[in-house]
Each structure stands twice: as structure tokens, then as C-alpha cells.
Amino acid sequence: MKILLGDFNAKVGRENSCKPTIGNESLHQGSNDNGIRIVNLATPKNQVVQRTMFPHQNIHKYTWTTPDGKTHNRIDHILKDGRWHLSMLDIRSFRETDCVTDHCLVFVKVRKRLAVSKQAAQKFDEERFNLRKLNELEPRKQYQIDITKSFAAL
To answer: What is the CATH number of the domain that holds 31?
Structure first.
């Protein structure tokens, strides 16, 4: 899984032309120059701008505030491979953190578990334990002798 995150100074809007790469939950209506650049960076690599995918109140969307405290922007973004788009469960900003900065803390909840298909698990078990040999008489007798010896040792 490849994750690219940071302060890109990019306002990503809600343009329909960028829809496979961005979601509907952007703070801004239109993108600035850096926002277009980040979409152009993500699109050919099959990445998604994850910050625009999760619905939250606007106070949990912005990541930067101007020094006068009147303008709020979302300029910190997280890009992730499109293949792993379901592994991020939530992304939001925390405003009141004890950091000496004008940026908000961005919190990401990621699912760590990888799914294994049932066919792959069955194939592994069949290779490790060849249960078909127990249908034959000679291997079955040898197995019974081995089990008896193991229990006798205990």
C-alpha cells in the first residue's frame, strides 16, 4: 500500500472532470493551481485523494487557518492507491491540538488486515496436508502407528 501525504497547499474542488480521483466531500467548490496539479499527479498512478471522500462537518474538514482566523482551507491531503481504497476508514481534522502551528492535526484511521481468498487458503492446506493419502491402506496404517507412538510417548 502506498500512501502519499503532506501539505500540498492544494485546494481540491468538486469538478466533475476529476471525479474518479476525487470525492464529493471537498471543502472548496473549485480547485486552485496546486489542486489541479495534485489531481494530475494522482490520476495516472491510479491514486485517490482520500481527504475528499469522507463526509464530516466543515469544521472537521479544514486543515489550515489564516492568521486573522477568518479564512479556512483544506490544503493538507492524503493520496492512496485506488486498489486499497477500502482500507482507510476515516480521515478528519482536529482543531484544538497543543501544537505551535497554524495547521490542524489530521487523523487517519486505517484498516490493517489483509483479506485472503478462501481458494488460496484451501490450496495451502491441501499442499501442506495431503489428506487424500489417508484413503489408501498403507499410508493410513503408517499414520495410525505414528499417532500411537506419539501418544505412548506422552
So the answer is: 3.60.10.10
